Amino acid sequence: MISLSPWWTREHVSRLLTDLIAAEVARLRPGLLGLRNALETSAETAADRVDPDLGRDLETLELDSLEFLDLATVVTVQFHLQETGLDDDLIASHHLGKWVDLILRSRARWDEAISFQTSGSTGRPKLCTHPMPFLTQEVACFADLLRGRRRVLSAVPAHHIYGFLFSVMLPALLDIPVRNVRDTLPGSVLRRACAGDLILGHPAFFDLATRAPVAVADDVVALTSTAPCPDLVWRLLGATGLARVIEIYGASESAGIGVREASDVPFRLLPHWSRVTGSHDRILRLGIAGDTSESELPDHVRWLDDRAFQVAGRRDGAVQIGGINVFPERVQGCLREHPEVADALVRLASAGQGGRLKAFVVPGPACPDSERLPERLQRWLAERLTPAEQPRSITIGSQLPRSALGKPMDWD
Asked: Which residues, listed in sequence order, are joined to residue 113 by a DSSP beta bridge?
């Protein structure tokens, strides 16, 4: 047995499981509403009640046997239960509290790494594994940067790497409480924040939070990541009176890479990262024990010197919606599979249009009524895509919009 790190507690693991299970079931069954709230109730119960006969709360999800195995596999892989031989014990119980106990028992035996899943361009989740010493090194760096925070207000899920680092590891290291604010209006979160609070969010959250003028208490800090924070959101956040706004640049594959505290300055590499000599797209990480590992940057960047850089656009074609990676090409492919669709184009709408995906569709010969085609397509997509992937508007036309050179172009 090893001594458990401060973030491996029933409270933290319950939050992690709640978010992980909700995300996986939403992937298996897009459109299922109210799932996270139901799971949070089960998790709160699990933290207080350990009687094995108190219920089998995972059965309330009404998963079939294959879906349950999928869910158990995702939990096993993220927490590496296979390393301790406790993975088979997971499927023996349908009780969330038992799953929490198994994860804690496993971590007491083996705590070398943790894995996170991120969307791939084909929709198949991509596994990103991180040694715990690397994550501990990073969160210790931010603990120094954020010393003096007294509470974390988290608007992000805990099972992704950003949420795990800053709503699980950081508050455990600083010994401060965490409050989930995802079911609170973003503007209200800013208005009700108290001195010493750290607001953990993403650009879409802060965009909503600043739609109306808001004044923030003294000594409140905002942290944003998962997508580039637009200049307008930076300006609006600056007008609220926040003590600091910190943007983190990173990826599921690498964790945090760089930080900045203004929109008109470049990102600077975190202390444990350095640029690989002669490379424009590779960086080197130096671990606490002197071990090193290389990573490829997820975006094209412009280097200003060996440590300062500007982000110039993603390599993989992903866009971020509400802090979630979404691939327009995957959505296009799904639309083109519909029997009434001849062709389709999907793009990210501007912030003024809502910042969600939009689609342009050319009906095929099998389409009997183009006016009602968007309704049929929305039902089709709701059965196949996650909420973040579903276009919020579908425009119908006889041909895709193209420039004089024949390249796809935007539409209203």
From this structure: 131
DSSP 128-150: EEEEHHHHHHHHHHHHHHTTT--
- Per residue in 71-103, pLDDT (tens digit) is 999 999 999 999 999 999 999 988 889 999 999
CATH label, 131-316, candidates 3.40.50.2300, 3.40.50.300, 3.40.50.12580, 3.40.50.12780: 3.40.50.12780
Q: Which of 206, 217, 203, 204 lies closest to 150, judged by CA? A: 217
- Eight-state DSSP code of residue 59: G
Average pLDDT over residues 301-318: 87
Instruction: Encode pLDDT of 237-252 as tens digits.
Output: 999 999 999 999 998 8
Task: For residues 154-168, give the mean pLDDT.
Answer: 95
Could you give the residue range(s) of every CATH 3.30.300.30 domain in the chain?
327-396
d(CA 101, CA 104) in angstroms, rounded, equals 5
Phi-psi category of residue 226: left, alpha or beta, with phi > 0 → left and psi -120 to 50 → alpha: left
Superfamily of segment(s) 327-396: ANL, C-terminal domain (3.30.300.30)
**Rounded average pLDDT over 377-384:** 94
Question: How many CA within 13 A on the CB side of residue 255?
Answer: 27
Domain with CATH 3.40.50.12780 in the chain: 131-316
Cβ atoms of residues 268 and 256 within 8 Å: no
